[in-house]
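User: Okay, second chain of the day. Same drill as before: sequence in, structure tokens out.
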Amino acid sequence: MNKHVTIKKALDAYDPRFDPLVQRTPGHNQDYAPTYWVAHGGDAPQDDGPVMQDMDVDVAIIGSGFTGLACAVFLAQEHGIKAHVLEANQVSWGCTSRNGGQAQNNSGRLKRSQWIKQWGLETALKLHKDIEEGFETFEELIKDIDCDAVNAGHLYVAHRPKVLKTLEAEVELMNKTFGYKSRMVSKAELHSDWVKEANGHGAMLEPTGIGVQPVKVAYGYHRKARALGAKIHTSSPVEGWETINGVHHLRTPGGIVRARAVAIATGGYTTQTLHKSLKNRFMPIMSNNMVTRKLSDAEVEACGFKSNIIMTDTRTLRHYYRLLPDQRLQIGSRSAITGADAGNRKHFERLVAGKDAKFPALKGIDIDYSWWGWVDVSHDMMPRIFQPNAQEQIFYALGYGGNGVMSSAHAGRRMAQLVAGKPIPKELPIYNSPLPYEVFAPFRRIGQRMLYVWYGLRDNYL
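Assistant: Same drill. Structure tokens below.
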């Protein structure tokens, strides 16, 4: 037998209690979470196996989700750099295989009116242009990937009549200031032409929005990256990091990877000990997801589904949902605060209750898939693609706040430009400032519990 051929060991069991604020790594060689996407994503593409010896590389990318794989694609495609991607478990094991598959024309969790308030009109206009360019990047990247893409726009559904004025103001701003042709949809039109959501009192319709099968997207990125010469090493968690004379020594179970540059793309699975530049720089928030059994034609009609458009409601503790192409309902929302509490039945039941309130005709329907995962939310609700120290070749792209399906592709491209020493729009805050540090981060979960109570009251009663 060729001594260089490695045989992968059987996968370790998936750990549903992983918590990035508690554990040092997200595991080693663990199986995927039991998501609908993994179950229907086909066979994972061939990778390059675990790191099995010490090696010297030009660029190491930590994390093989959307961002890390897109960064590897663009490093090779646009800059001639063949990176080595280090993944603790399986390809796209974290955020990428656990989200809702909604590609929206946004970045982070702030609205365009909030951009203006935060940074002024000139910066907001440039940010909008950059995000539109990012959507084009995403569309180009997936155009030859069979990922069940549905390009039907996005409905931002008013869960209470009182929020309609806010949506109307945002639509006017989008049209007049940003030239982004959104429009209001009345309750009657929503129910007749889009969906008979019991909680829906109207909506803002954005023309830009694509629903995708995220695992198929990731596998497509994976194939592109390897075809361009990138190496993807699974079962290779970074368990230690030391920088010596400008070279980054990344310790994995199978050997030390010595890299001249490191790009961090670990999303909500970034641990507190990975690197000092990221400690207390964002808040990991857990989200729950479920997918029902296939709906009958009568059930689809009862719910009034007229398309597979992606939808989000206006709650602070928002729901995101859609009818999938194979006629199942997918819905997601908030979940536990800690990993230790993730499996508590009450979180599942809360999401079921949300489904039932929106679609009473589906009350009692079987849930075929249920899972949860961590989302990386920055303390100012906006992502960063940044080099924290000009003297060190370390870069990160993090903080998407649940809007990373589309923006991660552009973030990967921008991070590749940084790694290659090329210019990016440094006048934009997402590129010229680090993820904000939170001095009270050790107490963040106490505050989170209080905020969830307040948000629940505000969303439903106040």
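The two ends are 70 Å apart (CA to CA).

User: Thanks, on to the next one.
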